């Protein structure tokens, strides 16, 4: 899929969001997003100037340069002002994509990854400040078996209501607490240790508003995870253990490092994409496929395990769309009616 960024008023730089001790809110409609699609709204620590400081980059934010995220993507065609053409391998399934020698890494705060079947918000810390062009082991490539040896936490720590035990919280229809067939307001609060903009990030909270009603986030309901309705250091550590997942989140500095990154400023990204690698099963179905769906953390949504193939998605749902609107930021409790 493609990406859209927010520039500042000059149009020459990306708008840098300062999220600590703030509340970020937007309205969204995911009713036209079936299994296998992801209408994403998120933040990354990409450079404010889009990499114009590198010789060879004469494009900048106006043309969307400088992108990076915690997956250290190799499909970025220009990194640090140079074409990523060395060792370029075209994708066998996507005529517009491929992988080059280098990746583009930076910390990532996924506010919203969702379709009409499932949603999640996820923190992805990295061992770096700002953007870095990676190569080799530091990219943490799956293909080389280095996923957990790289500089970024690719799994992240996520709050995914279905995965965390509440399968009736988010989905299509009035039998769900948040009905994905109707527009909703999504509120995310970044709580600091001392209640100031310079404090340490200790919690990321989520609230919904739909049909004029404030809906508090679901609580975890998994053995081994204390009841929680937000992301904290304890929730992350406990969920990694309960789900038998590698805790790369803590290894990469966890909440503290993520907060430091947010304190340096992040760029807003919005996208709509399908998944040529894992068919979005990690969001809306059972994943990974080699584990029993009855194991804690494997089931993530009601989509079939054979759904999400981009060829099928693009053929069967070519007019899919996501609508983001009324994007706002303010002090805690100021951006939505209570």
Describe the structure.
This protein has helices at 233-242, 248-251, 254-264, 281-284, 310-316; strands at 2-5, 16-17, 22-29, 37-44, 78-79, 82-83, 89-90, 98-99, 103-105, 108-114, 119-124, 132-134, 157-159, 170-171, 178-179, 184-192, 201-210, 213-216, 230-231, 266-274, 323-331. Strand 17 and strand 18 (213-216) form a beta hairpin. The protein starts with a strand and ends in a 7-residue tail after the last strand. The longest helix is centred in the C-terminal third of the chain and has 11 residues, at 254-264. With 338 residues, the protein is mostly beta strands. It is built from 5 helices and 21 strands. Strands 1, 2, 4, 10, 11, 13 and 20 form a 7-stranded antiparallel β-sheet that branches. Strands 3, 16, 17, 18, 19 and 21 form a 6-stranded antiparallel β-sheet that branches. Strands 5-6 form a two-stranded antiparallel sheet.
Task: Present the secondary structure layout.
Elements: E1 2-5, E2 16-17, E3 22-29, E4 37-44, E5 78-79, E6 82-83, E7 89-90, E8 98-99, E9 103-105, E10 108-114, E11 119-124, E12 132-134, E13 157-159, E14 170-171, E15 178-179, E16 184-192, E17 201-210, E18 213-216, E19 230-231, H1 233-242, H2 248-251, H3 254-264, E20 266-274, H4 281-284, H5 310-316, E21 323-331
Q: Can you tag this structure with a few keywords?
A:
338 residues, 21 strands, 6-stranded antiparallel β-sheet, mainly beta, 7-stranded antiparallel β-sheet
């Amino acid at each position: 899929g493609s990406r859209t960024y927010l520039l500042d008023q000059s149009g020459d730089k990306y708008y840098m969001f300062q999220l600590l001790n703030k509340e970020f809110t937007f309205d969204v409609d995911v009713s036209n997003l079936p299994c296998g699609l992801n209408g994403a709204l998120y933040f990354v620590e990409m450079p404010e100037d889009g990499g114009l400081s590198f010789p060879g980059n004469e494009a900048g934010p106006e043309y969307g340069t400088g992108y990076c995220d915690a997956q250290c993507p190799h499909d970025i065609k220009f990194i640090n002002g140079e074409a990523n053409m060395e060792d370029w391998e075209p994708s066998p399934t996507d005529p517009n994509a491929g992988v080059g020698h280098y990746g583009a890494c930076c910390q990532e705060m996924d506010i919203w990854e969702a379709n009409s079947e499932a949603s999640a918000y996820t923190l992805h810390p990295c061992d770096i400040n700002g953007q870095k062009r990676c190569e080799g082991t530091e990219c943490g490539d799956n293909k080389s078996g280095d996923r957990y040896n790289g500089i970024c936490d690719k799994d992240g720590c996520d709050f995914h209501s279905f995965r965390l035990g509440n399968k009736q919280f988010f989905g299509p229809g009035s039998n769900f607490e948040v009905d994905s067939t109707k527009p909703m307001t999504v509120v995310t609060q970044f709580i600091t240790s001392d209640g100031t903009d310079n404090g340490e990030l200790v919690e990321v909270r989520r609230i919904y508003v739909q049909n004029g009603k404030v809906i508090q986030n679901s609580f975890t309901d998994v053995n081994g995870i204390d009841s929680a309705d937000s992301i904290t250091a304890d929730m992350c550590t406990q969920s990694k253990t309960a789900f038998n997942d590698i805790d790369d989140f803590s290894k990469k500095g966890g909440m503290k490092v993520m907060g430091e990154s947010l304190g340096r400023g992040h760029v807003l990204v919005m996208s709509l994409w399908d998944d040529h690698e894992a068919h979005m099963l990690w969001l809306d179905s059972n994943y990974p496929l080699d584990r029993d769906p009855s194991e804690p953390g494997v089931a993530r949504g009601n989509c079939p395990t054979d759904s999400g193939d981009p060829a099928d998605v693009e053929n069967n749902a070519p007019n899919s769309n996501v609508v983001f609107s009324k994007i706002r930021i303010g002090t805690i409790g100021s951006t939505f009616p209570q």
